[in-house]
Amino acid sequence: MDLMAFESRGGLCRGPALVGGVLAIDAGNSKTDVALVTRDGDVLGTARGPGFAPQDIGAESAVAGLAPLVAHAVLAADLDIAPTLGPLTSRLIGCLANADLPIEEQRLGDALRSRRWSEEVTVANDTFAVLRAGTTGDRGVAVVCGAGINCVGRRGEQTVRFPALGTISGDWGGGGDLALAAMWWASRAEDGRGPATTLAAAIARHFERPSARAVAEAVRLGTVTEADLHQIVPLLFAAADAGDPTARHLVVRQAEEIGAMACAALRRLGLLTEPTPLVLGGGVLAAGHPQLMQALDSYLTLHAPLAQPQVVTAPPIVGAALLGLDRLHRSDDTRAAAEKRLRDHYARR
């Protein structure tokens, strides 16, 4: 059966004859990964697509956009798809960006259940996938700093999280906020309201405009998009490396925001006084900028000396799949064996 036929029948197939495991979905702001995984941790098929934005197009439309990816994963697995109705897997775990509020999780969960891809559906914020990808136990805190910033923590069955709605919920950081802050200081440097900074010339040069003000005007007129402004972040770090005080200030501020989120989560879980994994993910942190990491280490040394920071290397889809496998296995031994098989698969890629 081809992809079009699969989608025309709703993407339904004989579950028990196919996969008694997990359909894992890690849907981030910039990309979406899907994986079909057996209960033993074997990866049968995967697919990758664009970012996930239910806040812009609604839960139903966003989930409809996942259908081609699920179909591609099934086709990649070379499964015997049949027109009979039934779930594809035992568990569907959707770790989804912008699933920040309980009502958003409910709407996305309902939309996923209507697809009948799985017998059971669980929806969580995509930061939980990063946490699970970077830990093997049932405790830890994860901070993701990419396009935006978010944090979750877990201690057994207890979890903590933040609304992560941006400025309105007390958040600052990630590529979007760093770029806007760099523009703010560059513009003020040019018109005399702020100190001189090399960011002004670097931003103007990058966008081939005569000034940072001209870049701001281009954003206003739509010839430069706000998404384009994320290109400023590497310029900011380069300026910090070169010793620009304004750029260095912003890097330190970002480190302190990451640290503040992590410490708040650790405190709420009662883990400040215990050695605890602190998983760091997202593009800004994955880049490993020395000044950012040094400033973060300094903050943690002062406020959470027992935290064990580590930049996650496994992709978030691993965490999403493991959350599903955790629900399938009651035995620690069988769960550990499935986890090793899954991790080994992605480590070889």
TrEMBL record:
ATPase BadF/BadG/BcrA/BcrD type domain residues are 25-324
Q: Which domain of life is it from?
A: Bacteria
Q: Which Gene3D superfamilies match?
A: 3.30.420.40
Name one matching Pfam family: BcrAD_BadFG
Give the SUPFAM superfamilies listed for this entry.
Actin-like ATPase domain
* TM region positions: none
Recorded protein name is BadF/BadG/BcrA/BcrD ATPase family protein
